[in-house]
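Hi P.,

Sorry for the delay on this. The queue was packed all week, but I finally got your sequence through. Input first:
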Amino acid sequence: MIALVQRVSGAQVSVAGQVIGAIGRGLLVFVCAEPHDDESSAARLVAKLLKLRIFADDVGLMNHSVQDVAGGLLIVSQFTLAADTSRGNRPGFTGAAPPALGRALYETVLKLARESHPAIAAGEFGADMQVQLVNDGPVTIPLRV
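Then the structure:
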């Protein structure tokens, strides 16, 4: 799975003008499943997200996780993370999982995250979403598990 993680002081996702998910301080996570991914990939991703030490401690070092700071997770599906731009000017998306697998793995990520962390918000798989965020730092981390 591919993820793009942004440390935020706040973020929200809307569909058709309605906010469907929002967090304060925490992580905005864009998630893309790839064809070879399975439930164990989703579990590894959630474990990494919850333990990723990218929040500052008392002396300003990145030593705290989202769990340590009681932050939120806003998890949004984004198949475009698998874009192939190596040929031409139009990206190809064959590196992304087919929609049925992508949806199932996105829902697995959400389920596992909700079982492990109290503050989870989400986008809507396959929807045209608008995401607003205040990137804190800025800190943006690409992950591949």
